[in-house]
Design goal:
Membrane topology: Multi-pass membrane protein
Pfam families: FUSC_2
Helix content: 55-70%
Subcellular location: Membrane
Protein name: FUSC family protein
Largest sheet: 2 strands, parallel
Radius of gyration: 29 Å
Keywords: Membrane, Transmembrane, Transmembrane helix
Length: about 725
Amino acid sequence: MSWFRALKDTTRSGLTVERKRLEPLIALRGAAGLAIVVAISLAAFGPAVAAGSAFGAFQAAIATFQRSWRPRPELAIASGTSLGISTFLGYLTGSHLFLFVPLLALWTFLAGLGWAAGPTIGIIASSNVAMMLVTITLPTSIGEAAGHAAMMVFGGLVQATLVVLFPVRRWGAHRDALADALAAEADYARRLRHDPLAPFDPQPLMLARSAAALTPRQARNRPAQLHGARGLAERIRPVLASLADPAVGVPEEGVERDRVRELLAAAGSILDAAARAIRTGAPVRVPAPAVAALRTPDTGAILAGPPHRAATRLGSLLRDVLETAGEVDPVEPLWHRLPARLPGHLGARGTTAPGPVAEPPPALPRPTLLKLVPTAVRAIRKEARPGSPILRHATRVSAVAVVGYLIGNALPFGHGYWAPMAAVMVMRPDFSQTYSRAVARFGGTLVGVTVATAVVQLAHPGTWTSAALAVVCAALMYLLMRTGQLAAQACVSAYVVFLLGMGGQTWDQTVPERVVLTLAGGILAMLSYALYPAWETPRLRNRLAERLIAVGEYAATVVGHYAHPAGKSCPDVRAALLAARDAHIAWDLAATRARTEPVRHRGLSRAAADDAAHALHHLGRVAMLMEAHLPERDATPVPAAEELAEALRTATRDGARAIRERRVPRWKPVREALDAWDGDGVPDRVVRRGGGLLLEALDEVTEALDTDEPPMSVKPGPDD
């Protein structure tokens, strides 16, 4: 992509206003906390302290809006406290340039490294640095600076208290994550009716798993509907795929396929019902046609072998999902007719004994805020290495903050903090977000300052009126912040103008320099990424190799259990699957970022990368099908499967090395293992057919990377 097109796309992205579900009650709660803090501090201490405390309450409320599964009161307190500490330390050195500039560089560098611990920490840390640049100019003595810091902490406490006293959709984010996972499964089931090879995005399942990690206090108080359903959704997905896939299931047409379509439609309806119940907390309304489809007694006469086992397993899992989703609506008596296992032949319900209901798994542990510190330190140390995108971001943002601060002080505008504040607020570890946010911030600044200036010039508001207008602007920002950066930045700009106007600063002391210096800060941020980039495109080969290793390990682990049957519950398979999903998401994120970058990957075209990723998705899907039919503990072992598992590990690791070295991977060990199977004979239909499909998927990887571009070599590798 050329620089012109990249700038065009990022500009369009930054100026886009998206249609999102608004949350007015949460916005009102944040604005109420801000109003309480401003009113108390304004009445007790005056406009200067009120402005400082308002920044603390404002930032604490923003922290509660961040995408985090941690309790919101903790985020508000952490944000207000850290901003108070930053302000006090900044004031101690603010009057001495040779002391403040090193502190600013260090503080900004640490904030940049904070992105290694997650986006929530990164955003809060970056915002604290930006706010500090403004708040250190408000006090006039060390005592006042300590008072400002204390009021910022007080602002965080007020916001945290309001979250506790007036919860809005308590556990709402967790409910949405779990409901989205079940809804994604329902959509997948419906798509499989028409396309047996339909793809599935694992992002909703991974998001639900992230939401399931709870602190000890959360684990004690979580609703019953959040117990166990995520694990059931994880187990349903491979069952749905194996039921629909013609390779290990039923033919593509015929009475068996019609029956499978009925079961898939019923599964989609039941999963949707469970998702709605979990999202709203209401009783489950079980759809009668879906229950009737699952109760049809001729399933055993139509389906046989692996498809029948998958159908039986599906019925059992769907019943468990409904039991986990909560109390069933009493107007739906057909709930009691949903079998624990699908009938194997014509007969009464009692002919099939119900299977035991699995105990809900324990909550995944999430460390408390204090125990998170060692984890964050380890993550930062891991990224503090040459070539790390996070380290490059930290270096860029600290350099830009220092240069912007020096430029702002050198210019004759006054309020020189606008330039470094704008740069710190817009800079992110990746190219597209940095550039789009820079455009949005400047555009939003123009809109917000223009509107606020017009109000000030026409109405000449007093101290209390300016405070009220600032609270209104903050409420609009809380309401619209998810619709895009343009709307949010316009509200923030107006908020700052009114807040500083509350302290007696006239519009001509804040508006012109804010516009010019905001533009300067945005330009510095954009130039820094162009001069010291951290492009994702050159790392695509490594990402692809890492995904190949992860998917290959997952497939090998599944195949190995056919040689050593251990039943359906296999922790090593689960761990390998999660690693493969992490690699999948990392690849998708890298590929998405690379598409917006103005650089070209030499040796891996976009078409080749997409085709290789599609082949790896096929490889993972075949492994998932085989996982759905893992043998029970008392099943007959397939000794040859152990050789195939080892061949898969060896071949995929060697293939990953070949991709990194710009060679085309080959799969000789896998082919030899399957040839030996054909000679000895492998009676298990699923594992033999699955092994052939795994090799086909690996050959697709080779075909995708075997291009005519000079940087890719086709010379034989060590396995050829």
